[in-house]
Design a protein that fits this description.
The protein has about 130 residues and is an alpha+beta fold. The protein has three helices and six strands, in the order E-H-E-E-E-E-H-E-H. The strands form two sheets. A four-stranded antiparallel beta sheet has the order 2-5-1-6, covered by helices on one side. Helix 1 runs antiparallel to helix 2. Bound molecules: adenosine-5'-triphosphate and magnesium ion (MG).
Length: about 130
């Protein structure tokens, strides 16, 4: 099964999250600048002319389509790096994905999601690198 992770994080966490994902072998992704609010409905700021409400705050959305078995590790990595503990750290949504097609080759499904040195290529390499037991 294929899933899509949609992670909404603080803008200043983007580089650290991207690096951490790269480190665990998550390669393909899409990044968007978004504006939104969660359950607090924005923030109230105090300026010279009094207080005003900013109800849409800038955030970054990272979309990653990946195999089911890599979702938990990816979610853990994002949470670890993106968490400050303060209100507004963001949310992660997970969706099922019907199909993936790599346009150049026509590959579908998991094959269309394979990248050199990605999280799955590494675990296969680790298994095949194990010494033979007589
Ligand atoms: N229900 C939602 N659907 C889609 N996007 C959302 C939803 N809730 C929040 N967002 C997006 O996530 C961003 C961060 O939300 P936020 O971290 O404030 O969530 P929260 O549930 O209010 O948690 P917290 O109490 O930690 O603030 C928002 O700015 C908005 O872009
Ligand atoms: Mg909030």
């Amino acid at each position: 099964m294929t899933k899509k992770i949609e992670a909404i994080i603080r803008e200043e966490k983007l580089n650290d999250v991207k690096d951490a994902l790269r480190k665990i072998g998550i390669v393909g992704m899409n990044v968007f600048e978004v504006r939104g609010h969660g359950r607090q409905g924005g923030i109230v700021l105090t300026g010279r002319s009094g207080t005003y409400r900013v109800d849409l705050l800038p955030r970054v959305q990272i979309n990653i389509v990946l195999s089911d078995h890599n979702v938990e590790k990816t979610v853990e990595t994002i949470c670890q790096v993106a968490q400050t503990g303060n209100i507004g750290d963001g949310l992660i949504f997970i969706y099922p994905v019907e199909e993936v097609i790599r346009i150049r080759t026509g590959e579908r499904g998991r094959e269309a999601l394979m990248y050199a040195d990605d999280i799955d290529a590494r675990s296969t390499a680790a298994v095949s690198a194990k010494p033979e037991v007589a």
